[in-house]
Amino acid sequence: MGRPVHPHIITSDSALGGSEIQRSLRFHNSDNTRLVRTIGSTSNRRTFTYSWWLKRTMNSTEQYCWYNGHASSTPYLDARFEVAHEYQLQIQDYLGGSNRPLRFITTRKFNDATAWYHFVFAVDTTQGTASNRAKLYVNGVQETSFGTETYPSQNYDSSANVSGNLQVWGSNKEGNSNDLDGFLAEAHLVDGQQLEPTAFGYTEPQTGIWRPKKYEGTYGTNGFHLDFSDNSSTTAATLGKDTSGNGNNFTPSNFGASL
């Protein structure tokens, strides 16, 4: 079974306002490790921000970072590394067939299994300018080079934050294929705001390295913050606990305790 907590410290410079991340969660592709939550009520489908730190450890298969959508079918919004695109990151809102109102595939290849990356995906479909409706940042810098680049129409209601649908980390829906293999830390969803990466990190002046910092804003109805700080057991109230104050806990599956 996968070990739930890995004491890898991404940063340790709290003197400059940064946050020391003490724990990350280890996902094992072979164990179908995942975190799952059912959405209780529909909230903002037009404006939201995902932020997460990730280090991949296996490069031989497609891997899902997160999923937000229907429990067994379409529609859904997801983020994954594509084998067919040499481990480039794809984020798409998929409605079935060839219908993808929102879709990005980076030209950047995330095939370094030793590196930590910070990703921010920020959406606000109410924006008048198409390129402002969805933005992807990596280590504090906005991605501008895409092999596929499709922006949603103005005021488009995405597949995110719909009552009865799922929010998942590390897997496609509740399936058992294309699962994440790697380490996840500081996973946020901010419901109702399109944020820049400076809400979650900063560039350290001495080194020029992108560092995490504590997010101090609000989260909205379906927002959450997973910091994996409680490793006393592998339950929704401990390992899957939402520390945002919303109580949007996730149920862990197939994580073996190392307590």
Describe this structure in words.
There is one protein chain. This protein is an all-beta fold and 259 residues long. It is 0% helix and 36% strand. The chain has no helices and 17 strands. It has strands at 25-27, 34-38, 47-56, 63-69, 76-82, 88-94, 102-109, 117-124, 134-138, 141-142, 146-150, 166-169, 182-191, 201-203, 210-212, 224-226, 251-253. The strands form 3 sheets. An 8-stranded antiparallel beta sheet has the order 11-7-6-5-4-12-2-17, with no helix packed on it. Strands 1, 3, 8, 9, 10, 13 and 16 form a 7-stranded antiparallel beta sheet that branches. A hairpin with a 6-residue loop joins strand 14 (201-203) and strand 15 (210-212). The chain is globular and about 45 Å long. Residues 1-17 have low confidence and may be disordered.
Compile the SSE list and pairings:
Layout: E1 25-27, E2 34-38, E3 47-56, E4 63-69, E5 76-82, E6 88-94, E7 102-109, E8 117-124, E9 134-138, E10 141-142, E11 146-150, E12 166-169, E13 182-191, E14 201-203, E15 210-212, E16 224-226, E17 251-253
Antiparallel strand pairs: 1-13, 2-12, 2-17, 3-8, 3-13, 4-5, 4-12, 5-6, 6-7, 7-11, 8-9, 9-10, 13-16, 14-15
